[in-house]
Amino acid sequence: MTLMERLYKKVSQNGFVCVGLDTSIDYIPKTHKENKSIDQALFDFNREIIDSTKDVCAIYKIQIAYYESYGLLGMKAYSKTLSYIRKNNLLSIADVKRSDIAQSAKQYAKAHFSGDFEADFITLNPYMGMDSISPYLDFIEKKDKGVFVLLRTSNPGASDFECLKLKDNSEFFYTVGDKLKELNNKLLDKTGYGPIGLVVGATHKDEVEKIRKRYDNMFFLIPGFGAQMAESMNVYKLLNNLNGGVVNSSRAILKNYLNFDDGEDKIGYYARLKCIETRKEIEKNGRL
């Protein structure tokens, strides 16, 4: 089974929610980190989230910055989290947003597709050019690894560069997407998707349908729902019959326990509840 077949099946069975393990030590209750090292506290928190949500989400996204900020102990927790996901036959996205060329890119691919930091997918920044993407092909052509490449991101400053107008009056990010689609078309499997996906934010209401139609055979990683308050209809339109993409939610899931009096004793339970609520909120758009 290819990686995309695994992901497509997970979304079909468990829904499209991607749990973002952007875990800060500040999110962890004092009682859950007393007498623990930083790496153990981070990992134990992540493990509870994973154990409680693994049947109601498709994949986990681990944002490396949160772990790098704690130095070696943070990276130990990062590695342990990825390993735990893999041992449970679950899927992971390492949100590392790498952007480099030639031998440096090959080393990044080796670092995040094997060894201590092995993940199923990694995120890439394409704005150095296609030679910052091609070094990853040696891994993804085997169809057991994949990438999500930044296309139209959800942050307020996304338009500074992504939407620059070209001579033909098209927006720059479409040129990036078209080149990535050419590569992806060579790697499609029986799901109709390939291992080169796109990061498409759900905060840009006027573009979502056009982007989904233009890149119909590319899987989307969809940020912006949850803490960034993207409209659920935007998210629904970026999906393809409730598949073809995963919808990331991080803080809204990790910190949901704070909304309840008994939350500190039921962190995983309330994370699970938020996953289910997120899925239902987006799915209801299909009945409107």
UniProtKB/TrEMBL annotation:
Domain Orotidine 5'-phosphate decarboxylase: 16-266
Catalytic site: K97
CDD domains: OMP_decarboxylase_like
Gene3D superfamilies named among the record's database cross-references: Aldolase class I
Documented EC number(s): 4.1.1.23
Family: Belongs to the OMP decarboxylase family. Type 2 subfamily.
Protein name, per record: Orotidine 5'-phosphate decarboxylase
Organism: Anaerococcus faecalis
Gene: pyrF
